[in-house]
Amino acid sequence: TTATSTSSGWHYSSGWKHHAASGARSKGYKDAAAGHSATLKVVGSKAVLYGCKAPKMGSISVSVAGHTTVVSEKQSFTRCGVQLWSKALPAGQQTITVKVTHTKGNIDELKVS
């Protein structure tokens, strides 16, 4: 199952903006400034988050089942469709929370298997 950045399952705080990007897995991504968050309820055994890395990006935190990982989206050149995070999921429904923790962050898609 794949949830693109525009899938109705995502619940975004205000401030997220959609951008077209040919290199993105879902042909676009959503980004926001620090402090903004997005959540998605999922069921599966593994989740993989994809996004864009670029010079003006900062970092995001990805939280699920009581575990949080901080991921840098900053690099010297722009590239979309990059795997940012993956995690084995516990059984049952889980809520994945992506929070922009520094400067600017983005979401391309989340794949659950």
Could you walk me through the main structural features you see in this protein, from its secondary elements to its overall organization?
With 113 residues, the chain is mainly beta. Helix content is 0%, strand content 60%. It is built from no helices and twelve strands. A five-stranded antiparallel β-sheet has the order 2-5-10-7-8, with no helix packed on it. It has a four-stranded antiparallel β-sheet with strand order 1-12-6-9, with no helix packed on it. A three-stranded antiparallel β-sheet has the order 3-4-11, with no helix packed on it. A hairpin with a 2-residue loop joins strand 7 (59-64) and strand 8 (67-72). It is globular, with a radius of gyration of 13 Å. The termini are close together. The relative contact order is 0.33.
Give a short synopsis of this structure.
The chain has no helices and 12 strands.
Which keywords apply here?
five-stranded antiparallel sheet, 113 residues, 0% helix, 12 strands, single chain, four-stranded antiparallel sheet, mainly beta, 60% strand
Uncertain segments of ≥5 residues (pLDDT<50)?
none
Beta fraction: over 45%
Class by SSE composition: mainly beta
Cα end-to-end separation: 6 Å
The major pleated sheet works out as: 5 strands, antiparallel
Q: What is the residue-mean pLDDT, rounded to a whole number?
A: 97
Care to count the β-strands? 12
Q: Give, in spatial order, the strands making up the sheet with the most strands.
A: 2-5-10-7-8
| Net shape | globular
Number of helices: 0
The residue fraction in helices comes out at under 10%
